[in-house]
Amino acid sequence: MKKPSSILFETDRLLIREFKPSDLNAVQEYAGVEEVVKYQNWGPNNIEETKAFLIGSIALRDMHPRMIYELCIELKTAKKTIGGCGLFLEKEDLKAAKIGYIINPAFWSSGYATEATLGLIKYGKEQLGLHTLRATCDKRNIASQRVLEKSGFELEKLIEKDFMQKGVMRDTYLYKLTFIN
After folding, report:
1. Buried-most residue among 3, 84, 126, 128 (CB within 10 A)?
2. In the structure, what pLDDT confidence band is assigned to residue 10 with cuts at 50, 70 and 90?
3. Counting beta carbons within 10 angstroms of the beta carbon of residue 14, is it exposed (0 to 12), middle (13 to 18) or buried (19 or more)?
4. Alpha carbons 61 and 63: distance in angstroms, whole number
């Protein structure tokens, strides 16, 4: 039997919670859009791929120790799924993690990605005891760079020709945030 969906934390406008099967259509709204996933190494998804993602995300909750937190971003007032975010603990150092986020384009330019990222930072530090967070983004993804910088991340380095992404060699920015105790 699956555990019920639960809220991990909330911000002023958002609930950050576990995904649930009923999120399928809302996730497909953004995961199936080329413009949204153009800097991702996946997508655009068809409905079956999005369903597989949700099934996998739900299954990750039961892993011990939990290494991956694929989470839903929900608008508090509207009770609407508008994106996803995550913490991905590093196998070599369980006190370090990578973060990621994605937002439905209908909700771009509203500060939701930054708000979710700041919430992930606080959750990672206070609940998971993390000391370091990292994030990567495509060199061309100016919006993601702004989110990371507003959230306190510092550019660590540029990785030229990092990997093949959708037929093009991607240049990647690596950002880092270290917590001072």
Report:
1. 84
2. very high
3. buried
4. 6
